[in-house]
Amino acid sequence: MSSSPPLLATKLFIPSRRPNLVPRPHLIDRLIQGLHAGYRLTLVCAPAGFGKTTLVTEWLRGVEHPVAWLSLTGEEDGIERFLRYLLAAWERVQPDILEQPLGILLGSRMPDIKAVLPAFINAANQMTGQPVFVLDDYHLIEDPAIHEAVGFILDHLPPQLHFILASRSEPPLPLARYRARGQLLEIRAGDLHFTREESTDFLEQSMELDLSLDEIASLHMETEGWAAGLQLAALAIRRRPGGAESTPLASGRQRFIADYLGEEVLAQLPADMQDFLLKTSLLDSLCGPLCDAITGEKR
Question: pTM, whole model, 2 decimals?
């Protein structure tokens, strides 16, 4: 048995239902379409705070299909460890998998990676029903070997298995080929933006704010229907004694929004990009020569 660190079981659980949920039946219907229309892959791709995980988990609560879930954190960014997590997630829908070739291979100290992937496909082919495998926060994966492995799996999926990838960025997979073959369903940031009606429901019903129609319209326009931005602005309004009247409705200067952008956006960028953004943040507009002068580097 491998001596690698133990796996975190909590990464295999579907996240709990979030409070303040806005029903999005039109997007749920698209996910249902992805499962039943012969797509190999559904890609939910948008920046932080657009409700990717919330949408997928809400849809899963309404289906009766077996679900394997893996929340990625970057800790599994190595092909062998990733495959061990894949096995642990798959065991939840196929409990006897440890006794089959896939489990035996990954139970060895030095598994044959080239043999593991066909073993996974063969094991999935034995499943009845329509199992769903969700890889959440796929943007945290950087190892090219993992992307190659996921691509192999997607290329050889049995027809009953459907994959869902939720990611903040475009995954380095052959999406153009899947798209051309009608094997890919995509839900992007433009689809996840709250509509004006959804923003109204969220602010009035979920956040229990008493705002005028003009204030709601301003919040919706300034956040462009960004769910996290609406929630953080609403929290800021609730904490101010004067409510919306004393609060700029949505601004990066608000502490909640600034903290979120710092933790979920800026902190996730590579160190050199963080340094560039910090050095050029004092500029009102950017151009190449000016950025070179400020940073002392040519890009």
Answer: 0.81
Confidence of residue 37 (pLDDT cuts 50, 70, 90): confident
* CATH fold of 9-192: Rossmann fold (3.40.50)
What stretch(es) of the chain map to CATH 3.40.50.300?
9-192
Q: 134 CB contacts (<8 Å, ≥6 apart)?
A: 14, 56, 60, 67, 68, 69, 70, 163, 164, 165, 166
Confidence of residue 253 (pLDDT cuts 50, 70, 90): very low
pLDDT at res. 116: 92
